[in-house]
Amino acid sequence: MPLLKRKAFEKSSASEYLRDDDEVFHCEITDEIFKDYEEYCERIILVNSMVWTCEMTGKNNLTYAEALDSEKAARRSLKDFPMELRIPILYLATKTKRSSFAEMSEDIFNYVRERYFVGETVEACLEGDTWLEAHILSVTAQKQHPDNQSMLPPSAYCYEVEQYDDSDPATPGQIGTAPFDRIRRRKGIYSREKNKLFLKQFVTQVSNIIGIKQAAIEKYNIAKVNFDQIFTGNPPDFPSSKKLLKPSLSPHASKMPNKPNSATKNNKFKKPSPDKKGQQSMDKFVKKTDKSEVSKMKTPMDPEARKSAQELANKMRRAEDQMRQRKEEEKAKKKEKNAQLMAFMKEWQKVKDDQELEDHKIIPKGTPIQVEGIPHQNFGDFLSVLEFVYNFSDTLKVKDVFHNDLDAESLKKSLTSKEYAWMFSELIQMFLSAIFSLQEDEAEEYNEHGNIKEYVEDKDIDENITIYKSIELATKASKWSHTYLGSSLSKLPLDPTTVTEVLRLHLLASGGTGGSRAAAWRAQQRGGYGGGDDPAARLRLTHPQLLARLRRAHVADLDMDDKFMILQCLMNQVLSYANVRDLVEEKLEEYKNLKHQLRTLQINERKREPQLATARMELKRTHMAKKEELKLSNAEFKVVEAQLKDALEELNRENEAKKVENEKKIKELQAQIFNHINYVGSDRAFQRYWVSRRVPGLFVEAGAEPRGPCRRKPLPAPPAPRADLLSYIADLADRADIDKEPAGSDKENESAANSRGNSPKKPLSSVNGLSKVNGVEPSLQHMRDLLICTADINTCYVHGKGDYRPQWWVYHTEEQVEGLIAALNKRGAREADLRHTLELDRAKLVDYIKKCPLHVLNPSMAAPMPANSHATRRRWQPSLTVPRDATLAETLELTLRDHILELEEKIFHGCLGAIKVKDREAWRGTIMVRGYDKQAEYLSWGPGGRYRDDVHLHDGVLNVPSDLPESEVDDIPENRYRDPGQYLERAVEGGGAQEAGPPASVVRGLACALLQVAQAIHHKYLKRPLGLDDKERKEREAKGKGMELEAMERWEVSLMECRGLAALQLHLLALDGSVAWASSILNASCRVCRRKADPDNMLLCDGCNKGHHLYCLKPKLNKVPEGDWFCQSCKPKEKTPPRQRRKLYTEVKEEEESEEESEPESFSTDDVSVCGACGSGGRLAGECGGCGARYHAECCEPRLTRAARKWMCAACLAPPREGGRRRCATAAATHIQQYARALLPRPYRRRDTDSDSSDSESNTPLQKMKGRKSRNSKESSPMTNGSATKRGRKPKAEINGHSTRKSKSLTNGTSERRRRTEEPLHVESLQQLLQDAEKHRDSWPFCEPVSVEDVPDYLDVIEKPMDFSTVRSKLAAREYGTDEEALADIALIFNNCYTYNKDTHPVAKAGCRLEKYIIKRCAELKLPPMPETILEEEETGTKRPLEDDDDDDDAPLIKRSRHN
User: Among 522, 737, 1040, 1405, which residue has the fewest nearby CB atoms (within 10 Å)?
Assistant: First the structure.
């Protein structure tokens, strides 16, 4: 039971007369019942007060619950306390003689710790290094002399133990003797804390000695225990406490009789000084006179004379009494005045509020802060951002964003510049990334995820939103990104174009409840943090217009106040997370430890000199004792003196070294402590002084916060300064007495008093330079200069409000700091602390402020730029060319238009879909010229395409045509979607937020353009998060369900409700991330070699759309096979054919062919010497029983076995379906484009020849653009082939003289079925010739068209360019009628080569070798001879045939390197 103030606590018992209907109050902690509510409240307060003590451990200052927990923990730890130790410990406790429980417990623990008792279970090692459980049987000790009664050490004992094997408990134990070091207790079974807890239960104090309770002695029969039973030898003799060893005080000595010469109180008397004559009193004089007259026996005096004499004596006596009384009164008055003066001085020297002091000096002003573009009211936020980024650079990962750190100049430029892709956007991205990272760390702790929830209009929202309603709306907004963009807020793409929308969504979603586990975790780990404490939630309530502006304008286009408001909100959010809180606490703990270490060093340094003096005296005393003891001679005496001198010098050297070391450590600690200081203090006018770690300088802030009311009256002028402080205080006290005089005094008496000479002195001047002559009050300006209250709120600088606050200054020189320290008042409560801090860190502060960047803080100061400063370079925006005078909104608009066009181009050329418009080039051209023409009556979007862009406007507004029947009006669906921040726009007055961004028509047009691009993509090429994955798509196909994309429909709904360009950019990137770009033919690469090279020989799988080089397959193919072709992963499973009659297997003899003669041959199904699968020769192992085709052993499908009588090929077992067609890159593009045209309405379908005529005549910008000539082409339109991605740029293919997209698309092979009938054009032989030529090692200059970017003057020399890819394209398109026409184009390739290049050029030499090889292959393939190449001389104009080269013919290479 916990103890209350060290006494037992008694619970109150419930009344016996309680009825069932009585109202009672139950205290759950103490399990008590009260009828009186006041008693119940008192008990609740009592149990929650820290006045309880744990009965087991003795811990105090606990609450009742904490004391109970402490007792439970103590009892749990005592559960495993060994029973064998309880009796020995209690027995030893009866032998102690201690007055302190701690001493008693320590004595017993030190004795028991290394000694083991009979019957105790321990661990023993009898053999080897194996420790097993054992039981102590007896204890033996070393023999000791009978007279030696000292306690034996633990190592003097040996133990006889019985050891058991844990693996087999049934076996008898092994008995052996173990020394002290071969026996031990189990770890943690007996410790100092457990020993204290065990003894605490049984101890009591009897006559100043701690002993065992009698009940415990009787319970464990301690009185009957003999020490030999539990151990060996005699019981230990424990020492007694020092308090018990002190002797009793002796009685007082009897009074001794006084000696005769001793001075006591009884015999004290004073001898009159011979020099001083005492003045006799009147009585003595009278008595003396009477005695003299009596002695002379004169005649009696006349009674009259006696009477006069007596009167004279009485008169003299009264005069003497009056004089004595006057002196005493004057002395008392003087003493009282001195006491009052001392009391006034003591009160004057006390530390008071600075505005109560009269001896202020003028504080020198620093250099005013005038940062360009940063007003004074925002300079504090400016410094706080720099300081925050500097202190939490690791959490924010500043090095990943700003490689040279964020300095003042960089932050100033980022805040004042109106560029969306510069440092301010990066700063916001850095904060958001850090917050998202901290959120993910916390989410891992409580593991809760959001669900999809559509955001519709909430009609319960009032104009005055409460904090609870704000939390509810934030919870809904937190699920918006997952619902409409398919990913969580932290996973959204974050770049300069989308940072505004991501920031807005984050501010709207902050403060939402994340579930019960999240709320409990935040409350525990983040100090009771809730949704209402989130800074963003407060920002939404206090500044809703800021979030409304973010919906339309870019964050870099906001006002300075809005920018700092956002930064402060993000910084406060970072500080609220548990990881950052731990970091702050670590820094505070580090600062505390540094101060403690500094204080310890300073204390040791103060002790060093006294310790040195003591060491010297001890050293001298030791040498003096040595001299007296040894009685040295003169020579030996000199040696000892020299030793003493050396010892003292050594001691001094050690002391100096220790002093230097301590001073070094103190300086290091002071420097580290100085690095932790930010706030220095405040002065009399509540101006705050700061030291920034990022901007050197001592900054002064005159804040705009309220400072309370003014004084009732101003301070009186102080007296004139005096050299003597006491006289100055005396004058000050006199003025205080004058001020305390009653106000209703008589004017005449006052004037009379002033006319006398005893009037108080008037001061000539005050200590601060103010004058008060002839009763004139100090001027108002002087009081403002002194920064003291004027008692008028309208003129007071301290408490008033005006344009002088807020304001900032900076001290950057040593003279300014010295003047500041001298002007601060030591008696002021604030200025005293400020002065102490400045004086303590004066040296380090002066060195630090010398680095102050005045050129940034005050450009008007003519200070040179630092030598190591680096000017921040302007970052050019990538892939964007805009006019220099363009606004930020125009720049973002142009960027978004380029991104939309680029996305559409990648989709079109990648054969992923086609936009559904009449004229694609006209549609793109309109967007290029900052317009938009949808080329349709309306666009449909949303769930089931029910919404139309011409009817459904923003925020659910319907634009119903007037001629529409009412029956159809009722059928128009309602769009209930609302933006998560739509409720905040009600607080925006005057429509200022709508003017901040681009026009609404521009945003709506770009949204429609992006909608058309999204609807152009085939659903097959959309993946998660907006599309379907392969598993879902297959399940829907198997179940016969439609391919509706619910996520895509939600994306379209939110897209059409966008009001800003950042939101559109975010939707565009979400769509881009959902496109399966791996299926694009632009990204097709060989799955074998992983290269995108050689697109002419790329074969696409009809299942997975992956690419494969013909020569990378095993076995390699020489041509594109007919029908559908599947890779090994997508190949359908073949059915096992029925077992047929066995047929003997025959092998074809291997034909030995030399390496020079093994050239690739054209494939023909009629030729028995080639494989029917790969079309190449070699050893053919099997023959089909159906069609008679022969195959290689590795090409046989199904696998050829020797047991099979009749083997059938795959074509005969499963004949190809009708209409099957080989799909290569060109065929895939054709199919997709035909599919897109089929989806268009009938009026939209057109032929390629009349595309120009279908353009809208009213589209004036497009007509102007078509009439504009390109810079690199003679054509009138820059979009002839629809492949231009940038304005005014023609595709490379058009420059080279043909309109196909060979440089970007994979147009290999043909999509038409090969005809088996003979044609006058030998297509297969020509294709084989081109394939062999391209494999030749010298074919690298002739495979692709020559680029005019690499060779600008090529078209000036060559009139008709030609290359192998063009010949192959024309051959596939059936543009050649005879073989001679194709060979003429091949000859033209070499003619152009020799015309442009000299004979010594490497390209000309390569062409010569390749031409000889082609001539040779023409003869082998039975093709007509290639025309002879005729060159024209440059000077004479004569033609000459090309001379043969002596180089040998080179065979084609299977794998060649591509050179571009």
Answer: 1040
pLDDT of residue 243: 73
Closest of 1120, 1145, 1132 to residue 1309, by C-alpha: 1120
Q: Which token pair is 1428? A: 């002879």
- Helices 499-509 and 535-542: crossing angle in degrees, nearest 10, is 100
Helix (H) or strand (E) holding 1434, with range, is: none
Q: 740-777 burial by CB neighbour count: b if 16+ within 10 A, else e? A: eeeeeeeeeeeeeeeeeeeeeeebeebbbebebeeeee
- Specify whether the CB–CB gap between 873 and 423 falls below 8 A: no
Question: What number of residues does the chain have?
Answer: 1460
Q: What is the DSSP letter of 456?
A: B
What residue type is 972 in one-letter code?
A: I
Among residues 391, 469, 385, 387, the alpha carbon closest in space to that of 428 is found at 385
Residues with Cβ within 8 Å of 945's Cβ and at least 6 positions away in sequence, in order, are: none
The residues near 18 (Cβ < 8 Å, ≥ 6 apart) are 24, 33, 35
The separation between CA 1388 and the C-alpha centre of its own chain, rounded to angstroms, equals 65
- For 653, the 3-state DSSP assignment is helix
Q: Work out the angle at residue 183's Cα, subtended by the Cα atoms of residues 179 and 188, and round it to the nearest 5 degrees.
A: 155
Pairing of strands 1190-1191, 1182-1183: antiparallel
> What is the spatial distance between Cα 1175 and Cα 1118, in angstroms, rounded to a whole number?
6
- Placement of tokens 């045939």 in the chain: 1441
Query: What's the rounded Cα separation, in Å, for the pair 605 and 599?
Result: 10
Give 98-145 as a 3 state SS string. CCCHHHHHHHHHHHHCCCCCCCCEEEECCCCCCCEEEEEEEEEECCCC
Check if the beta carbon of residue 725 is closer than 8 Å to that of residue 344.
Answer: no
Interior CA angle at 173 toward 172 and 176, to 5°?
A: 140
Interatomic CA distance for residues 1161 and 1328, integer angstroms:
7
Helix boundaries (H) for 349-407:
376-391, 393-396
Residue 432 tokens, joined = 């958001």
**Distance set, CA 273 to CA 276, 280, 369, 861 (Å):** 5, 15, 80, 83
Q: At 1051, list the tokens.
A: 């994306």
Q: Cα-atom radius of gyration of the chain, to the nearest Å?
A: 53
**How far apart (Å, rounded) are the C-alpha atoms in residues 691 and 121?**
66
**What 8-state DSSP symbol labels residue 240?**
B
* Residue 925, C-beta contacts closer than 8 angstroms, at least 6 positions apart: 1261, 1262, 1265, 1266, 1279
- Cβ–Cβ < 8 Å for 811, 817: yes
Residue 233 has pLDDT above 90, yes or no: no
Are the C-beta atoms of residues 618 and 644 closer than 8 Å to each other? no
What mean pLDDT comes out for the span 310-314?
81
Specify whether the CB–CB gap between 1308 and 1226 falls below 8 A: yes
**Within 10 A of 716 (CB to CB), how many other CB atoms are there?**
16
pLDDT of 60 reads 79
**Alpha-carbon gap, residue 200 to 191, rounded angstroms:** 14
In this prediction, residue 463 carries a pLDDT of 58
First to last CA, the chain: 90
Instruction: Return d(Cα 996, Cα 557) in angstroms, integer.
Output: 8
Residue 1406 to residue 1339: CA distance in whole angstroms: 7
Helices and strands in the chain, H and E counts = 46, 25
User: In terms of pLDDT, which residue wins out, 734 or 957?
Assistant: 957
Quote the CA–CA distance of 513 and 511 in Å, as a whole number: 7
Please state, in angstroms and rounded to a whole number, the distance separating the CA atoms of residues 1056 and 1011. 8
| pLDDT 10s digits, 95-149 | 888 888 888 889 999 999 889 999 889 999 888 778 888 889 899 888 777 777 7
Supply the pLDDT for residue 1151. 38
DSSP-derived letter for residue 352 is B
CA–CA dist 773, 770 (Å, integer):
10
